Amino acid sequence: MKFALFLGCNIPARVPQYELSARAVLARLEVELTDIRQFNCCGYPLRNTDQKTALLFAAHNLALAQQEELDILTLCQCCFGTLKKAAHLLAADARLRNEVNAFLQKENLQYDGNTEVKHLLSVLHKDIGEAAIKETLQASFKDLNIAAHYGCHALRPSDIMQFDDPVAPSLVDKLVALTGAKNIEWSQKLECCGAPMTGVNDDLSMRLTAAKLANAKNAGAAYLSVACPWCQLQFDVVQKQMEAEGRSDADLPSILYPQLLGLAMGIPGEKLGLALNEKDLSGIYNFIAQ
Question: Can you give the pTM of this predicted structure?
Answer without folding.
Answer: 0.97
